[in-house]
Design goal:
The structure holds two protein chains of two kinds.
Chain A: E1 2-13, E2 16-27, E3 29-34, H1 41-48, E4 56-61, H2 69-76, E5 79-82, H3 94-104, H4 110-123, H5 139-151, E6 157-161, H6 169-182, E7 187-192, H7 195-201, E8 204-209, E9 212-217, H8 219-224, E10 230-233, E11 242-245, E12 251-254, E13 262-263, H9 268-276, H10 278-285
Helix pairs in contact in A: 3-4, 4-5
Chain B: H1 8-16, H2 21-33, H3 35-38, H4 45-60, H5 66-73, H6 78-85, H7 92-111, H8 116-126, H9 129-136, H10 147-150, H11 158-181, H12 189-192, H13 194-207, H14 213-235, H15 239-244, H16 246-266
Classes of the chains: A alpha/beta, B mainly alpha.
Chain lengths: ~290, ~280
């Protein structure tokens, strides 16, 4: 079922084109947005989260049009947003902060609001840190608190901008478990630089570059795009190929087959890099 | 979850009501988390969960600081107090700085002797800018690190901006009034700056529907200083009655009314999701 419909969305910052006539249909489950810095991921997520108005195009989110003030307010009741830099007030305790965001989400009944705060604290496993000030929480805990505020009010659409950045492997795994659980019953959109996150979490991946969608499919399809373009060899390629030496001491080359190269197993990252033409840029830089 | 379970003797004491309050609470907490132990004793888990939720809230709920108590006494509901408590310009650091500036102005007026009139004038010129600064730091990205989250909530835009602006203007004006009555000059000093302050505050909000709030506040604050400076240069000794006299006050009132009208018509532009 389509929950987010994007039609010809455009946004500029001065002379820079952030979104270039974007068209997308998104549904329930976890969709990952991959792309280099400046690809337009954050701008798109901010438009979807109603924090930013697009210059042109139409959005239909959960059946509502965010360009219409009354529908925008209604939409805000149904979405949760974790920005890249949440800026959580350091002097607040985890409980105070969630209570404050719950008020912003129009939960005026104190008893119901506090019950909701307890629920989200429990969901992100921070109940025992309720009295801890934000500045004393670890990076991973702060990120989970950021997710908790997005979960207040049980939103139907969850928008997460780089939620796993800066997390250690254990925290990242915990976060992935949480997000995949949340994606079972709602639409979750997340942007990331980490192809591992996309492979582990997302049913669908959208790759963006220069404000445009350059790939839209399943992670498996993105891996398949690199099939026959990943090579392993015992000696360094002699040409201007992009390559690196892996942990087994073999040279991994992306693109054309080097001399003596044997076909390697492609990964999601290979598919992503080939799609962006990163290998061409590496070759050009040599 | 530990592997520990309530032993038979402790459970018997719990059922007989022979335990002290702290041990009862410990057993309650364990029963809520342990299905195995719950199976060995008759317990109303719904009641227990509610009881524990109340304890949890009592322990963790925001502390009733002086500011919250004051806002409560003014009749504000609890959720509004929670909303205003996060306003940067209502934090003690900001309020202390404002109080210090006003105290300095009053002290200068008393200690200046021959220069007292100059100090009074400085107070009247700068006092209207204090509420504008408060408004500028009450909302917006430079002052509020959580702005991006705030912008995506149903309270974003006009409701939050206006609530916070009203609160900080009220507080800044109350502090200004308290300082003004301590000034040694004529009685009208205490109120002469109020209308200019109101005009600059509402004007900043109205202008912020076109440019960012910090820019709007800087523009109007700068314009006020430029106008006052020009009047002082032209009229010299008689500049205060010109700037704060009856005719000027009427002008401020009319201009404030225009600013209110503009703000009302364009209030939707305060919403970050609205195209400017």
């Amino acid at each position: 079922m389509t929950t987010v419909s994007i039609d010809g969305l455009g946004k500029r910052y001065g002379a820079t084109v952030a979104l270039d006539d974007l068209d997308l249909e998104l549904g329930t489950g976890v969709t990952g947005f991959l792309g280099p810095n400046g690809a337009g991921k954050t701008t798109l997520l901010r438009c979807l989260a109603t924090a930013l108005a697009a210059d042109r195009g139409r959005l239909r989110i959960l059946g509502l049009d965010p360009a219409v003030p009354a529908q925008r307010t209604e939409l805000r009741r149904r979405i949760g947003y974790l920005p890249q830099n949440p800026g959580l007030y350091p002097q607040f305790t985890a409980y105070d902060l969630l209570d404050y965001v719950a008020v912003l989400k129009e939960m005026t009944n104190g008893q119901q609001r506090r019950a909701e705060v307890r629920r989200v604290l429990d969901e992100v496993e921070l109940t025992d840190r309720a009295r801890t000030k934000v500045r004393k929480l670890s990076g991973g805990m702060r990120q989970r608190l950021g997710l908790a505020q997005a979960l207040l009010g049980e939103p139907q659409l969850l928008i997460l901008d780089e939620p796993t950045v800066g997390l250690d492997p254990e925290q990242r795994m915990l976060f992935r478990a949480l997000i995949s659980r949340l994606g079972e019953r709602r639409t979750v959109l997340l942007s990331t630089h980490q192809t591992e996150d996309v492979g582990a979490l997302c049913e669908r991946v959208v790759v963006m570059n220069s404000g445009r969608v350059i790939f839209d499919g399943s992670p498996r399809e993105l891996v398949a795009a690199a099939d026959g373009r990943v090579w392993l060899s015992t000696t360094a390629p002699s040409g201007s190929q992009a390559y690196w030496r892996n942990a087994d001491g073999l040279y991994r080359t992306l693109g054309d087959q080097p001399e003596g190269g044997e076909r390697g197993q492609p990964s999601l990252e290979d598919g992503y890099l080939l799609l962006l033409g990163t290998t061409a840029r590496v070759r050009a830089a040599r | 979850m530990t592997g520990w379970h309530i032993d038979a003797a402790l459970l018997a004491d719990y059922e007989r009501g022979a335990l002290g309050p702290s041990r009862v609470m410990a057993v309650d907490a364990h029963l809520l988390a342990c299905a195995s132990c719950r199976g060995r004793v008759e317990v109303d888990t719904v009641w227990l969960a509610g009881d524990w939720a109340a304890v949890f809230d009592a322990v963790h709920a925001p502390k009733q600081g002086a500011l919250r108590r004051l806002l409560g006494r003014l009749g504000l509901p609890e959720h509004r107090i929670q909303l205003l408590a996060a306003t940067p310009a209502l934090r003690w650091s900001w309020l202390s700085a404002t109080a210090a500036v006003l105290a300095f102005a009053v002290a200068a007026a008393y200690l200046g002797q021959t220069g007292a009139r100059v100090s009074d004038a400085l107070f009247l010129v700068f006092a209207p800018i204090l509420p504008v600064l408060a408004v500028a730091t009450a909302y917006g990205p430079p002052a509020d690190p959580m702005q991006e989250i705030t912008d995506t909530t149903p309270m974003a835009g006009p409701p939050l901006v206006l609530w916070r602006a009203t609160a900080v203007v009220a507080v800044a004006m109350a502090m200004g009034m308290a300082a003004a009555v301590l000034l040694p000059g004529p009685g009208w000093y205490a109120v002469a700056w109020l209308l200019p302050a109101l005009l600059l505050s509402i004007g900043s909000l109205a202008l912020s529907t076109i440019v960012p709030l910090s820019t709007a506040a800087s523009l109007l604050g700068g314009a006020w200083l430029a106008v006052v400076g020009t009047a002082a240069t032209v009229h010299r000794e008689s500049s205060l009655p010109v700037i704060f006299g009856g005719t000027a006050q009427l002008g401020y009132l009319l201009a404030a009314a225009v600013a209110v009208a503009v703000l009302t018509v364009r209030r939707s532009r305060l919403d970050p999701g609205e195209t400017r």
